[in-house]
Amino acid sequence: MSPTPQPTDDVDIYFETPADDKEHSRFQRAKEQLEIRHRNRMERVRKEWEEADRQAKNLPKAERQTLIQHFQAMVESLEEEAASEKQQLVETHLARVEAMLNDRRRLALENYLAALQADPPRVNSTHWPLRASSIPSSPLSIC
What we know:
Blueprint: H1 10-16, H2 23-55, H3 61-117
Helix pairs in contact: 1-2, 2-3
InterPro entries: Amyloid_glyco (IPR008155), Amyloid_glyco_E2_domain (IPR024329), E2_sf (IPR036176)
Subcellular location: Membrane
Membrane topology: Single-pass type I membrane protein
């Protein structure tokens, strides 16, 4: 039985690790890693394109045009892939943040109801869950 391979970068780590108190910082690191990965891929294609263009100086115009179209398609594909990866990362982050907010709201409501149902009711402890500042209204407010 072979061991499970360890995540290789912050993006893999982010997707393989459940949400916790470090959600936003892990999201930021993964987003930065995605951007670095994309820049490296684009730089590699740019260098390949320059080399191919240098070697294709004596080719007929039609063949050079085909070569240009090939590299343009590669660049477009990389751009689409990067956008898709970033969208997946952002959607995952938003879902995790929303789940954490829902957990906090549920816990606040449970504590509030427990305080009201106590005998005698714990009036002072019923006010903190109702403060607007205790729970952000939007998942984006903690991003």
